[in-house]
Amino acid sequence: MAEYDDTIVSEHDGIQEQDNKLPRWWVLLFEITVVFGFAYLIWFHVLGLGKGQEKKYENMMAQAEAAQEARLEYTLAHLDLSVPSREAPVLSEGEEIYQANCASCHHSTGRGLIGPNLTDAYWIHGADFASNMHIIEVGVLEKGMQAWKDSLSLRQRHAVASYIYSIRGSNPPEPVRAPQGEMVEGSDSPGFEL
Fold first, then answer.
1. Quick one: how far is CA 169 from the chain centroid?
2. Rounded to whole angstroms, what are the CA distances from 151 to 35, 45, 50, 84?
3. Which of 99, 107, 156, 166 is the most exposed place for a label (fewest CB within 10 A)?
4. What is the mean pLDDT of residues 119-134?
5. Model-level pTM greater than 0.70?
């Protein structure tokens, strides 16, 4: 076996180079990198055992869906959907949602514009609270009212329905809309119950 000679010079186009050995630490690092790359390829792409970006994303989405389910279950367990809330924070949230989403059709006072008057005793789709919740959820597409089930959470729909319930009988000045629907005696009172 020939002994290594680091004095060998190669010359090409007037450039001289010595044939030096690479440092041992550099060669070892290169070998470790090759072994790691091969192991990574097998672990993640061949066997599918590692958590790649797709699996991390799927896990995060599953956690988010589980958290959303837990919030919905909590809301359903702690919120009586059959009766309107009379709590000030709920009514305040409901008023804020109403002013942002409903006032353009029902007026800021509920007296009616394009949509019907929400303060009188006349109701097209039912005067009870459950009917109001249902209409907010599914809308009345043939009359131009959108369904809010995809835009507002169950808690938000309950808040806005509670607010609408609270403005009954408020007798705003100059109702724009004439009475529509069937008259339900006493339904223009916030304490109305069927």
1. 35
2. 52, 40, 37, 20
3. 99
4. 87
5. no
